[in-house]
Amino acid sequence: MEYITHSPEETEALGAKFALSLHPGDVVAFSGDLGAGKTAFTRGVLRGLGYTGRVTSPTFAIANEYHTDRADVAHFDLYRILDSEALFEIGFDEYLDGSKIVLIEWSENAADILPDSYKTVHIQYGTFENDRVVTIDEVKKQ
Ligand code: ADP
Ligand code: MG
Asked: Is the keyword Disulfide bond in the record (predicted)?
């Protein structure tokens, strides 16, 4: 499904709506350029799950964890994680044990160890400055 948003608030609202389809064990792989709105969408997902606190980019922390009534959530930013050794060092694989909702920015850097099934959210810049094209899909390997 493709959506166009016109502000960060609209992208957050889309994330909040998308969150209603998520359950523990779901993995969401984000892709799209720096500043596209991956963290904005994630902020919406956490709002949609009922989290009311601050949601910040985990760029430096690598991972942020949240507890909501609906699920435990791990939010990764793998921008600086460039090989599978580094992934294992941060214990990334352990988060894929099916107990949490796992949201992954720069998921390209974990392509080799993503599970067989996951959702994808691709965000691109649109025609006008604050336009974003958000494409939500699902991958199901055999
Ligand atoms: P990413 O995590 O993809 O690097 P962020 O969510 O951190 O991106 O930042 C997105 C930036 O783009 C923010 O500064 C936000 O205000 C701005 N922005 C402008 N229009 C939009 C939009 N439609 N959706 C999301 N962010 C937008
Ligand atoms: Mg980000």
From this structure: no
